[in-house]
Structures are given as C-alpha cells and as structure tokens.
C-alpha cells in the first residue's frame, strides 16, 4: 500500500512515468516497490529542471518545523518561502515569496519537450506557519504551458497572446479559502465552462477565480495538492482541469480549450507564490513563512 502522502500526490489509477521528491519514512527507495514507475529525485533545482528563477527571491532547502499534527510521513526537507512584512507581488517595492518554473526529473522534462504529452498531473505539499495571516489572498504554484516562450508570464493581467499560453496556479483567499486561478485562452467556451464551477468569478483583466472555498488551508498543517490537466484536441473543447486536495477531488472542469495550435504543450509547473494582488492592502502584515515539499508529477498520456 502506498504511503498516504504519495497516494494523494498521485490520485490516479495509471500513468506513463512519474517523479517525486517524497521520501518514505522507512526508505526512499520503497516507492519503487509498488511498480508505479515513479522516479525518486532530490529536492534540488538541478534535479527538477528549475529555470527562470526570480533572482531577488530565495527558496532555500530547509528542515521545516513540525506540523500541528506530526506524522512519520511529514516532509524532512522543504523549500522555504519568505514573505517579509509589507511584501506583495514580485513587481512591487517589497517583493516576497518565490518564483520559478520547473519541468520535473530529467526523463519527465525530456518527455515534455519531445513526447508532447496531452495529459499530466503535478503536485506538492504546502504548510503555512502557525499564526499565518491570510489578508486578502495570494498565489500558489500550478501547471503552465503554451507555445515556446509565449508560455511564460501567462499571468499578471496579461492579454497579449493569451491563445498561446495557459497557467492554472492556485490561490488562497481570506480565512484560508482555496481556489484555482486560471489563465486560459480567452473565449466564451472557457468562460462558461469555468464559471459553471460553483463559486467562480471573472473580470475583464485578470484570470478566472474557480471554485473559491472548495477547500480551506489550515496553518501549521501540511496540505497535499495534485492538479491534472488534459489538453483539448485541436478544434474541440474537450480539455479538462481537475484538482485534488489531500486526495479528494474538489474541482473538475470539463469542456475547456487549453490550446488552439498543436504547438501548444504542457511545460510543467509555474512554482510561484506571493501575497497579492499588487496593491498595499494585499501585503503581508508581518514577516511570514511557508514551506513546499514532496514536489511530484506524472505524464499520464
């Protein structure tokens, strides 16, 4: 039987190839005993295809503090994100969090570049420090893709070349309410499909907030995130976007258009987090920390 965190990171019945930085309490190699074709890799930039790192932000590998409910499967190592008092988005005077892109293990990156998979899942575990102040909200990592370099920067109110990119990060909102924050090609089909998810809203400039309150984060507790996308066939609206929290499917949107061109592909994860929004009323009211661990992913087909 799979350790619970690993089962929650891969809440699917089968896949072509996967990777994870999760290390079982008994043995890191025990993952291979389940014949799931999962590659175990260290939590290291060079092992995960990390690139386009925001240079003035850090993501040091640390031993995270104990959770409120300690478990033998709690992460031993994690990336630490720092949110200084007054910090907001990376474009503001006081930036915070961290930001980069990753593809996964070497074999996964090769498949993403040359195999052009149409369905994949990526995930991680996150813990906000005890006493965390949510303010109005902030961004969390999610899957991205598109055509070449146009896939990057598919956020921040971007309107240009939105047909050439997609970015489905997560957000926390007031009181720790969670949602998907989707940037997809702008069209009526996507808008209608995403707004069909309860408690979803949109505006003319930014991404669509999907399923706000479908789950809630709790400070001092590890939350396991797994996100799956299935690209649409060109000329059809049969794409899918699904999110599991702690192994429970909380959002599943169908009938989506992720791409209008065969050159648009899944790239990996936009591993970004910060408070905001851009305005001061989004900023962290004190120095705060969050930890990200057990980075995982799989090519489904």
Describe the structure.
With 301 residues, the protein is mostly beta strands. The chain has a single domain, classed as Jelly Rolls (Sandwich), CATH 2.60.120. The protein is 8% helix and 35% strand. It contains three helices and 15 strands. It is globular. It starts with a helix and ends with a strand. The model is unreliable at 25-30 (pLDDT under 50).
Task: Provide the CATH architecture.
Answer: Sandwich
- Put simply, the count of helices is 3
Q: What fold name goes in the CATH topology slot?
A: Jelly Rolls
End-to-end CA span: 24 Å
What sort of overall outline do the alpha carbons produce when their principal axes are compared?
globular
Beta-strand share of residues: 25-35%
The helix/strand class is mainly beta
Domain Polysaccharide lyase: 78-295
Protein name: Polysaccharide lyase 14 domain-containing protein
InterPro entries: Polysacc_lyase_14
Organism: Rhizopogon vesiculosus
What keywords describe this structure?
globular; Jelly Rolls; 6-stranded antiparallel beta sheet
What is the secondary structure topology, with strand pairs?
Elements: H1 4-9, E1 17-20, E2 38-40, E3 61-62, E4 78-83, E5 98-102, H2 106-115, E6 119-128, E7 137-146, E8 165-173, E9 178-183, H3 188-195, E10 208-210, E11 223-230, E12 239-245, E13 248-256, E14 265-275, E15 288-299
Parallel strand pairs: 1-2
Antiparallel strand pairs: 1-15, 3-4, 4-15, 5-14, 6-11, 6-15, 7-8, 7-14, 8-9, 9-10, 11-12, 12-13
Protein name: Polysaccharide lyase 14 domain-containing protein
Domain Polysaccharide lyase: 78-295
Organism: Rhizopogon vesiculosus
């Amino acid at each position: 039987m799979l350790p619970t965190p690993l089962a929650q990171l891969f809440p699917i019945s089968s896949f072509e190839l996967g990777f994870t930085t999760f290390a079982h309490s008994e043995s890191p190699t025990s993952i291979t005993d389940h014949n799931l074709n999962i590659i175990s890799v260290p939590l290291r930039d060079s092992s995960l295809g990390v690139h386009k790192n925001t240079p003035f932000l850090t993501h040091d590998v640390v031993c995270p503090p104990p959770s409120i409910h300690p478990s033998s499967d709690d992460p031993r190592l994690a990336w630490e994100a720092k949110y200084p008092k007054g910090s907001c988005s990376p474009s503001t005077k006081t930036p915070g969090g961290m930001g980069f892109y990753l593809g996964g293990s070497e074999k996964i990156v090769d498949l993403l570049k040359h195999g052009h998979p149409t369905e994949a899942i990526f995930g991680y575990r996150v813990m906000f420090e005890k006493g965390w102040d949510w303010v109005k909200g902030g961004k969390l990592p999610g899957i991205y893709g598109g055509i070449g370099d146009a896939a990057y920067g598919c956020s921040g109110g971007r309107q240009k070349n939105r047909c050439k990119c997609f970015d489905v990060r997560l957000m926390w909102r007031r009181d720790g309410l969670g949602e998907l924050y989707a940037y997809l090609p702008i069209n009526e089909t996507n808008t209608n499909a995403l707004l069909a998810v309860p408690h979803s809203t949109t505006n003319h400039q930014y991404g669509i907030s999907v399923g706000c309150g479908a789950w809630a984060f709790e400070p001092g507790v590890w939350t396991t995130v797994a996100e799956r996308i299935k690209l649409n066939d060109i000329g059809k609206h049969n794409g899918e976007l699904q999110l599991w929290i702690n192994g429970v499917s909380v959002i599943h949107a169908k009938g989506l258009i992720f791409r209008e061109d065969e050159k648009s592909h899944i790239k990996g994860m936009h591993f970004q987090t910060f408070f905001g929004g851009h305005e001061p009323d989004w900023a962290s009211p004190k120095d705060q920390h969050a930890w990200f661990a057990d980075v995982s992913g799989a090519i489904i087909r």
